[in-house]
Design goal:
The complex is a heterodimer of chains A (375) and B (306). Chain A is mainly α. Chain A is 70% helix and 3% strand. Chain A contains 14 helices and two strands; from the N terminus they run βαααααααααααααβα. The longest helix of chain A has 30 residues, at 113-142. Chain A is globular. Chain B has 306 residues and is an all-alpha fold. Chain B has 14 helices and two strands; from the N terminus they run H-H-H-H-E-H-E-H-H-H-H-H-H-H-H-H. Chain B has helices at 3-30, 38-56, 59-83, 88-107, 132-136, 141-159, 161-171, 173-178, 183-209, 221-231, 236-258, 265-269, 271-284, 287-293, and strands spanning 121-122, 138-139. The chains are: A mainly alpha (375), B mainly alpha (306).
Chain lengths: 375, 306
């Protein structure tokens, strides 16, 4: 008989081991999935864990997908720590892309590159912030659930983008494709090395990771935000404003998603299309959780999620499997992580049948009174 | 026939998926569990139902498969949330993301398939009444079932002993536990039943309403249904009325597009989502009203014996 019981104090070991257990579980299930689909699991997994590291070009692709995930994941980590459930980063990403795209369309080949890039990144950041501000306003002013409002705004943002690229912003010379014209060369985010698409976005994202670490662990405001998330009553007692937490969490996560959107359109895309995001805003939710809501952890988890994206694309082109394999793996990973996280606050214990019965009688009338986990 | 009467009938058809899902989620939330996985359950059920009908040509089997798929995903969610006490929001999101992924993955071969149209079955006698008949009594059986379910659920939650126990579990799981009710099992039963209803909603969308399979075809219906439970202040009949209202907004939007109104279709397509936000803001402006009806233990983990 296996019993699940509480630990006296949270396990530090499992706090770090849990993401690894979750990854291992996901990979096991994935291998089984490859077998069921009649594919060789080893070559299947090598698409995910060998191919993306093969050469500079492949590493560049890895960086290009990890960058938006890292930026959005950082913002969401702050938001979730404050217990503000902004799950509409996808919409904020789209708004960032739209605003940056508007600025980029004004540029010509003669425009100063530094100026226009700073301007479009700023516009994207503000766009994402503004979109998230709607959620913050509804939550702060009317007490409306930020979960539902931020998510509804994703659909609104998708329609807005679609309207723009099918309508007023459509490239007249684009053979009726729903897309804007290609942005002027001056708007392109400078690449890091030749032969790979990785661009300046990566160092920017890494710098933000450092900045967020300082904010969360070394600043008063970051501390207040976290206390508010863990215990609203304690935060009130300490005089930390819960209203400013709502705004701060929404605006920070919105800004990061908007910046990611701006980097995406001025980087790898170079124009607006109806599909500027590949679900980065939703994948970043998983990135934030797998990275333990810590800026350092999010660096690793965004890399992992980027591997999933590239592996999924390779599985499509080389094995003929649907690209949505990526989504399946991502969902599995979050499930597995949440399940293995319970080992931080509890443990499984094997009890011989006879002793189990004894423990059962002693512990009655509430037989599983020791099963208290959690905070 | 009168256009308005037809529009009303179409609104009821369009609102039925949201109504079914919303009733299921309402059942969850009355027991104290919020399941953000609704969208995932709808999608998994939509493809399970659609694929079953493609292979068996049997709509009933399709509905059973859809409900089973929704219930299965809900069961995974329920075990994690109720026994392992994982965070309800995060686990629900996982179910949504996973469901979206699985449905897209499994659904690829079915994107070309199309099922036949389903003639509405008319209720003899009543459907002959002018104006009201075509609007209210000529629908697919699932539509009628949904309306009856809302009435039944409303009665059950307020009048039946077992319904009161369920509400007790949602209001104060500690008290229900002390009285000897199996709180966790009751909650799991509600979550699975709610998942089954979300499954029916998904199957109805892909088998009857569209009837096609398109990746991500539920387009936020699960999330709107979640919003509706708050809007309805956790009362089944209000949820039904709210769902028909949303069906109306959807139909109005399509109708305007069809009439060639000079507004871009994308802006009209925003309407249901904007309406959801406005309605949520409107209802939550009065916190007393929301809190008075909100199950007290909603979203909170329960540790028996603690």
């Amino acid at each position: 008989l296996i019993r699940f019981e509480a630990r006296g104090s949270p396990s530090r070991l499992f706090a770090y081991a849990s993401p690894l257990i979750a990854i291992a579980t996901t990979l096991t299930v994935c291998s089984a999935l490859f077998v069921i689909l009649g594919r060789d699991p080893l070559s299947g997994l090598s698409l995910f864990f060998v191919e993306p590291f093969k050469n500079v070009r492949a590493l560049g692709e890895l960086a290009i997908k990890a960058t938006p995930l890292l930026l959005i994941g950082l913002g969401l980590a702050v938001s979730f720590r404050a217990n503000i459930w902004n799950i509409g980063a996808e919409g904020q990403f789209i708004l960032g892309a739209v605003c940056a795209g508007r600025v980029a369309l004004w540029a010509t080949e003669e425009t100063n590159a530094v100026l226009i890039i700073v301007a479009l990144l700023g516009a994207g950041t503000l766009g994402g912030m503004a979109w998230a501000a709607i959620t913050a306003l509804a939550r702060d002013r009317f007490g409306t659930s930020e979960i539902l409002v931020s998510l509804m705004l994703v659909y609104v943002a998708e329609q807005l983008l679609s309207y723009l690229v099918f309508g007023p912003w459509r490239d007249p010379a684009g053979h009726n494709f729903p897309q804007t014209r290609l942005f002027a060369e001056s708007t392109n985010i400078p690449r890091l090395v030749t032969g790979a698409r990785a661009n300046l976005g990566l160092p920017i994202a890494l710098a933000f990771a450092a900045l967020f670490w300082l904010f969360l662990h070394r600043s008063h405001k970051g501390y207040a935000l976290e206390v508010g998330g863990l215990s609203p009553a304690a935060a009130r007692y300490a005089g930390f404003s819960s209203r400013s937490s709502i705004w701060l969490a929404c605006l920070i996560s919105g800004a990061m998603a908007g910046l990611a959107g701006a980097l995406e359109v001025a980087g790898p895309l170079g124009q607006l299309t109806p599909h500027v995001s590949m679900g980065y805003g939703f994948a970043a939710i998983i990135v934030a959780f797998v990275g333990r809501l810590s800026p350092i952890g999010v660096i690793f988890s965004s890399l992992l999620m980027s591997i999933f994206y590239i592996g999924g694309e390779l599985a499509q082109s080389r094995m003929g499997l649907p690209k949505s394999l990526t989504l399946v793996f991502q969902g599995l990973l979050l499930f597995a992580l949440l399940a293995s996280d319970t080992l931080i606050h509890g443990r499984l214990r094997w009890l011989p049948q006879r002793r189990a019965a004894l423990v059962g009688t002693l512990a009655s009338p509430a037989p599983d009174s020791t099963a208290r986990g959690g905070d | 026939m009168d256009t308005l009467s037809l529009l009303l009938a179409a609104s009821i058809d369009a609102g039925t998926a949201i109504a079914l899902a919303s009733l299921g989620l309402l059942l969850n939330e009355r027991s104290g569990i919020v399941n953000l996985g609704a969208e995932g359950m709808l999608l998994v059920a939509a493809i399970a139902g659609f694929a079953t009908v493609v292979h068996t040509h049997d709509n009933f089997a399709g509905f059973v498969a859809g409900a089973a798929a929704g219930a299965a995903l809900a069961a995974i969610f329920g075990v994690l949330v109720i026994w392992l006490n994982t965070n309800q929001y995060a686990t629900g999101l996982a179910a949504s993301l996973f469901g979206t992924g699985v449905s897209a993955f499994v659904g690829v071969p079915y994107t070309q398939e199309s099922l036949g149209e389903h003639p509405a079955s008319a209720i003899p006698g009543l459907s002959e009444v002018p104006w009201i008949g075509p609007a209210l009594f000529r629908h697919h059986p699932i539509v009628i079932f949904t309306a009856l379910l809302a009435v039944g659920l409303s009665w059950w939650l307020s009048r039946a002993r077992s319904g009161l126990v369920l509400r007790g579990v949602g209001e104060s799981p500690e008290t229900a536990h002390a009285l000897g009710y199996p709180v966790r099992r009751i909650r799991l039963a509600c979550v699975v039943a709610g998942g089954g209803l979300c499954g029916l909603a998904g199957a109805y969308t892909s088998i009857i309403y569209t009837p096609l399979w398109v990746e991500g075809m539920t387009a936020g219906k699960g999330w709107i249904a979640l919003a509706l439970t708050t809007f309805a202040t956790w009362r089944p009949l209000r949820a039904l009325a709210g769902a028909y209202l949303f069906g109306g907004v959807t139909m109005l939007q399509l109708h305007l597009q069809g009439e060639g109104v000079n507004v871009p279709s994308q802006l009209l397509a925003m309407l249901p989502y904007v309406a959801t936000i406005l309605v949520l803001v409107f209802i939550s402006r009065n916190p007393a009203l929301v809190r008075a009806n909100m199950p007290a233990s909603i979203g909170k983990p329960f540790y028996p014996g603690a």
